[in-house]
Design a protein that fits this description.
This protein has 155 residues and is an alpha+beta fold. It is 28% helix and 36% strand. It contains 4 helices and 8 strands. A 4-stranded antiparallel β-sheet has the order 1-2-3-4. It comes from Chitinophaga caeni. This is Lipoprotein.
């Protein structure tokens, strides 16, 4: 009986942690990249996760959009992630620029490893951004996805 209760407790705990990730807005994209969501749609951002609690990413290095694209000069939201999809090698991203009412497209290659790099001493932002292509128009994006044989779409 005790063993059975232990299994039930473990299952409930796993479900709680998994559901908290979704509730708290952490959507893993692989290779330590996460789509973080806040209270507003405009809060959506992709980060390289540098801080986790209970398995949930709560802070990281901004990847898309970077700070000067996420906010305008007045500190208002300027661009946010509309959607993102990933596979083993790639992340594709669609962002929305609020003022311009414009969609932008991005591709992130997951071909990097920051596991043994001290980001307080090295410029991890530059390393990450060297693996990001964009912003692109929808036509440029489709051509690049086809050329790189990425095998992802937003459907």
């Amino acid at each position: 009986m005790r063993k059975h209760l232990g299994h039930i407790f473990l299952q409930v705990l796993v479900l709680f942690v998994v559901s908290c990730n979704e509730i708290w807005g952490d959507h893993s994209l692989g290779n330590n990249l996460s789509l973080l969501e806040g209270d507003k749609t405009e809060d959506r951002i992709i980060v390289y996760c540098s801080g986790r609690s209970w398995g949930t990413c709560f802070t990281g290095i901004a990847v898309i959009p970077v700070y000067n694209r996420q906010y305008d000069s007045s500190g208002h939201y300027a661009e946010f992630v509309e959607t993102a999809k990933s596979n083993r090698k790639w992340v594709i991203v669609k962002t929305y620029q609020i003022q311009e009412e414009k969609e932008n497209y991005w591709i992130i290659s997951k071909n990097f490893n920051l596991a043994n790099i001290d980001c307080s001493k090295a410029n991890c932002d530059s390393i990450l951004q060297s693996h990001v292509k964009g912003p692109m128009t929808q036509i440029e994006f489709r051509n690049k996805v086809r050329l790189l044989n990425i095998g992802l779409d937003f459907k």
